[in-house]
Amino acid sequence: MTAVPALAVEDLSVEFRTRSGTVKVLDHVGFSVDKGETVALVGESGSGKSVTAFAVMGILDPAGRVTSGRALFGGADLLALSEHDLAEQRGRELSMIFQNPRTALNPIRKVGQQIADVLVRHGGATRPDAPRAAVEMLKRVRIPDPERRVEAYPFELSGGMCQRIMIAIALACRPALLIADEPTTGLDVTTQAVIMDLIGELAHESGMATIFITHDLALAAEYCDRIVVMHAGHIVEAAPARELFAHPRHPYSAKLLAATPGETVSLAELASIPGGLPDLRRPDLPACRYSDRCERRLDDCARPLPHRVIGERHTVSCWNPL
Amino acid sequence: MTPLLDIAELAKRFEVGNKRLLYAVDEVTFAIGRGETVGLVGESGCGKSTLVRLINRLLDPTSGSIRLAGTELADMRARAFAGNANRARIQMVFQDAGDSLNPRYTAADAIADPIRRLKKMSGASLKSRVEALADMTGLPRELLSRFPHQLSGGQKARVGIARAIAVEPELLILDEPTAALDVSVQVVILKLLQQLKRELGMSYLFVSHDLNVVRLLCDRVLVMYLGKIVESGPAAELFADPRHPYTRALISAIPQADPDKRVGRLRLSGEPRSPIDPDPTVCRFYGRCPRGEPRCSAEMPVLRTVASARQAACHFA
């Protein structure tokens, strides 16, 4: 099987300038997503998951700056595109679902119009045709009674419905790459399951590549082909989902799994992760940003971080992996 | 033996205009024993929060009774309850520790406030009590002078817990206490809660979306759907063998890393029925239920005993 990467992020570094110093938020991050593949970015708050997505989409906060790297997508480097060219890609080829659908949708515009806007701007639809196309999109995301719902404002819909509207907007122009940033946080588990199934089916139908950002490892394992584990702006491990669950190799991945409540464990069996994220403003950040928290630290860990390939599509950045 | 909390036919109906009524909590009956941890699960809009606010006496019920160790609390107006001696006996840990702390109060002020009001303590004894609470909840004493924005998520959660246990409640209501925390911090807070329960002999009513957490922490689970309790039972049995189709759907929705365990899952389609003036002859779950037989729309199933210590409101349970 020769997989074609839809997106290849290489050597991506991002800094944020703040009053109290420069924060090295991403440090030489690299991963790829194939056509039709779903890859999860997982990690605790502050690990750099969302910043990675924002950098790829070109929507970083003005204080943030890409200091190195490329994001190859359809033969072009997204990070080098002009704002105009990038705006053409976004919406059509590149799409994003945000964490909180209620704040991401326009509160004073009917949801049908919001879908139509995207179709007209990027999908080549004409204004008269767009309302009908919007109803079609609502059907695709399985919203009951779509003819009536296109007339609704976001506040009239439940959280799960709003998230389906977001998905309809994101998928309206059949993008080649979808970035979903915690799309089900704050939704009920039953709704979460339906939304995740839906994203999976739509991705499968159209061969869309998906980056799924989450802090829920079990959710990532269920719905993603591969998992990329991030810690303090580094990718510490990347592996097929099932393999990561069965045999995590980076000490941080293993700790993260051990802290996740699952099927059989009792509370006593769950272990917390000692320490916290290092201060990313420190000028003397260690090569391995996990080393201060790590129980397996060696003298070698002060050397530049290795990038070891230890199996089929399985890499780990650690001198002393499990 | 009388249970610590005894809820009988408790109801809250809100008027929503045109004399229509929204049945937020509809004749709910259950009890919590001393030292017991009871989980309350169900999707948003099912009435969990209203039920919690009724029990916590922040909201007046339409009808029904709330007995705490034999004392009827339902007759007392919510406004008057703040100054009542029973106020200290039921306390609450709120969902977002950051939002539920006064930004102008230091951690010490936040913890001291209920003690000052309800236990009339002040001066050196108040200070030493606050320090003892900080020690109990694992909050370093040097952080007591800090404001919420200077504390991490886990530290704020500790302040919220310290404040709730400060007046030695018998019943602690926990509303998604770890929803905003990373998994590594969540573990620490859950363990702290379990330890405090053992040490202080409190009962917990634990409201959560996260069924994996409920399974770990709770002795018994109540499943709520559109204002009604549709199933209750010991946590281990309920998770192993759910009787109500809604409970089955909830458990099916837990993300499952192991593909072999994903077989036979139940997915819900459609939206819940309206809670406004619901038809008393139709099962609340009708329309979303995969079974949905004619009987379900002609006769509302009542909560009945289906096995030892287990109840379900389904004709086919």
Strand content of chain B: 15-25%
Radius of gyration of chain B: 21 Å
**Which runs of chain B of at least 5 residues are low in confidence (pLDDT < 50)?**
none
Main β sheet profile of chain B: 8 strands, mixed
Q: What structural category arises from helix and sheet content of chain B? A: alpha/beta
Number of helices of chain A: 11
The geometry of chain B reads as globular
Widest beta sheet: strand line-up of chain A: 6-7-8-3-9-10-12-11
Report Rg of chain A: 20 Å
Which percent range fits the helix content of chain B? Answer: 25-40%
Order of helices and strands of chain B: EEEHEEHEHHHEHEHEEHHEE
| Name of the top-level CATH class of the largest domain in chain A | Alpha Beta
Q: CATH superfamily of the largest domain in chain A, called what? A: P-loop containing nucleotide triphosphate hydrolases
- Return the CATH topology of the domain at 87-201 in chain B: Rossmann fold
Anisotropy-based shape of chain A: globular
Strand percent estimate of chain A: 15-25%
**Structural class, from helix and strand content of chain A?**
alpha/beta
Q: Give a count of the beta strands of chain B, DSSP E runs of length 2 or more.
A: 12
Report the biggest beta sheet of chain A as strand number plus sense, adding barrel if it closes: 8 strands, mixed
The gist of it:
The complex is a heterodimer of chains A (322) and B (317). Helix content of chain A is 31%, strand content 25%. Chain A has helices at residues 49-57, 83-89, 101-104, 111-122, 130-140, 146-149, 159-171, 189-206, 217-223, 241-246, 251-259; strands spanning 5-18, 21-34, 38-42, 64-73, 76-77, 94-97, 177-181, 209-214, 226-231, 234-240, 308-311, 314-316.
